[in-house]
Amino acid sequence: MRNRYFDKSLPDAETVLTAEDFQRAQRQRRQSDDNFVQTVPIDDSAMYNESRFEGDIVNPGLLRILPNNETDDGKVAMPGLQHNAVRQPYLKWPSAIIPYTVSQQYLLYGRDQIVQAIDEYSTKTCIKFRPKTASDMDYIHIFPDDGCYSLVGKVGGKQPVSLGDGCMSKGIIIHELMHAVGFFHEQSRTDRDNYVNIKWDNIDQNLRDQFDKYSQNMIDFLGTQYDFGSVMHYGPYAFTKNGKPTIQPKQPGKTIGQRIGFSQNDLYKINRLYACPNTPQMPPSDSSVQPVDSSALTAAANGAPTAISDRNVNNANCIDQRSDCPFLASIGNCESVFSTSFMLVHCARTCRKCGGINDNASSSSAQQCDDQLPMCRRWAANGLCELFIFQQYLLNNCALSCGGC
């Protein structure tokens, strides 16, 4: 059956959306019923790729180091970053303008879907997707690769946003573009265990890191309450190993994983992050949600990551910064040359590396004192070498520019 969205036999040339594309989308919108409610669930399984960070983030720097992580075709993977909303100003798009190109491989129907998603941003936020010009060094390129994925925030250079098979619905496109705008998944919030239960028994042990959560040093909630209805929330069966739910809201009747469009919280957060004029008021909180006391969390019988409650705050060099350090250590990350720097920063106590990187790791870095990627100097100039999210990836690929040797 012929794919109506794209044709991969065509070259992946960079194009832009035209006035005709937007006019065609407007005609389709006028013909549709604005009060239509999506009743058939959208299949978002293409967003949960086991080899990518949290399914659709191109972020090898925090993936578990496995033998098959490298791609057969030698493509250079790009690092992402981990925030519900990015804090660093240089990771936001200047003036809320995101230059873009669209692959020539998209057919008219595929371009229509992309236009509809971009139009949602234009009409409901101050984010503007503008066709790339010759002077734009940083931009996103939308193309139909393998499934759905994106980077988070403005990382620099030509950033991929893949909308392949299973990704060509407006809600999924909005989701991937919201990553590019600067947002991470909703269920990665520090307080998520107050609102949802993670069903660890239904998740393969090797995929439990796909359900990480992050401290408020990494996440900016932008003052909002946990949003079950966010377009950025995992669906209930994300990464299931047995067809059973992996995430369940604590409050009965709540639905997660909608892929129709923005929630009111999504719009508020985008507009607040970019200081948009006429930012709407924060949506009212759901007073019926009663968060549980997070201090009551204890170790799960199935070995799920647990919180470390008795840290020695006076010994800054010997504490764990993450709740899942025992799990990360159990799969070899303390010893891996690829993850030593990350584990040193975040899991010093578990890895027993409170004195610094060991001599073997240092000598290994010294033997590879060069840059593997053309963007290394620029990333270093933008301060990414100091951002711990990128530290492991950049020490491996940009040792010279980042002073790793």
From TrEMBL:
Pfam families: Astacin, ShK
Enzyme class: hydrolase
EC number: 3.4.24.-
Domain ShKT residues, every copy: 318-354, 369-405
SMART domains per UniProt: ShKT (SM00254), ZnMc (SM00235)
Cofactor(s) this protein requires: Zn(2+)
An annotated GO BP: proteolysis
Enzyme active site: E176
GO MF annotation terms: metalloendopeptidase activity; zinc ion binding
UniProt cross-references to InterPro entries, sorted A to Z: Astacin-like_dom (IPR034035), MetalloPept_cat_dom_sf (IPR024079), Peptidase_M12A (IPR001506), Peptidase_Metallo (IPR006026), ShKT_dom (IPR003582)
Binding site for Zn(2+): H175, H179, H185
Start and end residues of each Peptidase M12A domain: 84-277
SUPFAM superfamilies referenced in this protein's UniProt entry, alphabetically: Metalloproteases ('zincins'), catalytic domain
Coiled-coil regions listed in the entry: none
Keywords of the record: Disulfide bond, Glycoprotein, Hydrolase, Metal-binding, Metalloprotease, Protease, Signal, Zinc, Zymogen
Cofactor comment text: Binds 1 zinc ion per subunit.
Described function: Metalloprotease.
This protein's name: Metalloendopeptidase
Organism, as annotated: Heterodera schachtii
